[in-house]
Amino acid sequence: MTDLARIARNNFVIIGRAGMDLYPEPPGTKTEEATQFFACLGGSSANIGVAITRHGGAAALVTSVADDAIGRFSVNQLTNYGIDTKHVKSVGGEARNTLAVVETRVEDHQSVIYRNGAADFQMTVEDVEAVDYSAYGALITTGTVLAAEPSRSAAFRAFDLARQAGLPLIFDVDYRPYSWPSPEVAAETYSRAGAVCDVIVGNDVEFDFMAGGADKGLDKARDLARSGAGIVVYKMGENGAFTLTRDDEFRTGIYSVAALKPTGAGDAFMGGFIASLAAGLDLRESVFRGSACAAIVVTRVGCAPAMPTTSELEEFLSSHPGPTNP
Questions:
Q1: Lowest CB count within 10 Å: 99, 198, 284, 306, which one?
Q2: Phi, psi of 63, deg, nearest 5
Q3: What angle do CA 154, 44, 269 make, to 5 degrees?
Q4: What are phi and psi of 211, to 5 degrees?
Q5: How many angstroms separate the Cα of 293 from the Cα of each of 202, 203, 236?
Q6: Is 200 helix (H, G, I), strand (E, B) or coil?
Q7: Average pLDDT, stretch 170-176?
Q8: Among the listed residues 119, 165, 162, 116, the one whose alpha carbon sits nearest the alpha carbon of residue 141
Q9: Any idea what DSSP says for residue 246?
Q10: Is the CB of residue 223 less than 8 Å from the CB of residue 310?
Q11: Domains detected in the chain
Q12: What is the DSSP string of 83-151?
């Protein structure tokens, strides 16, 4: 296992997608009834990068975007959030950025995601070989980057190069079935990735999938923690989370809030969790702060613009009665 203390450098290279999210306005509006929309940065890896920069960390994104207005919108948004875009490549042809239409409502919520010919899947081995991994404290990626070629091979090459440079590998499972050619390919690829990563974060459904069956996910998470991963976080929605290491495990609750929408919580958790580890907080406190970030985001419109700053997180923690007892 790589030394996780390097995370304290608070400077991360993130592999994965950036795109555009459209939210029907005003909040609560159903998409089919909307006449106006709010546009913002989207994509899980981009959102995690925003979350980290909001907490004072540094982040660089490695991805491909379409050479069109939506691709340029995505790059402009990344720049506005302070994310380093020197490894964001524009690609021509028929490749297109991810576009998501996401409702700000919990009841009868709809998220419609367009990823046909996704530009981020055009990331190549040459792209990741151009990165100076020694400049960073850790590599973060989400599982979506592994769903298609050439992005899949590029990601595994990045894992190898980052490992050679001494970087911890941080993996958000982020299983999206519509991106994969088959469940079998996804399961095999996720298992390969999980075997080499140092920090693994996913929900119960994702771990069940990795384990090959319902109610097997927690045992899979424990196996990963015992066999090499330094930290595994097994999230269970409103039921909190198990956090597992080689020698210990503990369970935590959630911060209950009146949610506006169900999306963005996972990216907020990852950003807040990693930023807290980088700040030197212990594992349990880092999990709680990640959970608090997730709670904040679901009360706001958007994902990237909803990510809390450190001061907003502190204000939330000081005013909230505290997490549930799991």
A1: 284
A2: -165, 180
A3: 120
A4: -80, -15
A5: 16, 16, 16
A6: strand
A7: 94
A8: 162
A9: S
A10: no
A11: 4-17+44-66+120-319 (3.40.1190.20)
A12: -EEEEEEEE-TT-B--EEEE-S-STT--EEEE-TTBGGGG--HHHHHTS-GGG-SEEEEEGGGGSSTTH
Checking if the pLDDT of 154 tops 70, the result is: yes
Residues 6+ apart with CB under 8 A from 269: 201, 235, 290, 291, 293, 294
Contact 8, 137 (CB under 8 A): yes
Overall pTM surpassing 0.85 (yes/no) = yes
One-letter amino acid at 56 equals: G
How many Å apart are CA 13 and CA 30, to the nearest integer?
36
How far apart, in whole angstroms, are the C-alpha atoms of residue 287 and residue 233?
8
CA distance 249 to 219: 12
Task: Round to whole Å and give the CA distance between 166 and 147.
Answer: 26
- Residue 326 has what pLDDT? 85
Would you say how long the chain is, in residues? 326
- Token couple for 282: 């212990």
Letter string b/e over residues 162-201, b meaning 16 or more CB atoms within 10 A of that residue's CB: bbebebbbbbbbbbeeebbeeeeebbebbeebbebbbbbb
Please check whether residue 227 is in contact with residue 196, taking contact to mean a CB–CB distance below 8 angstroms. no
What is the distance between the alpha carbons of residues 108 and 94, in angstroms, rounded to a whole number?
33
Other CB atoms within 10 Å distance of the CB of residue 149: 12
pLDDT in tens, 57-67: 999 999 999 99
Full DSSP string of 34-48: -S-EEEEEE-HHHHH
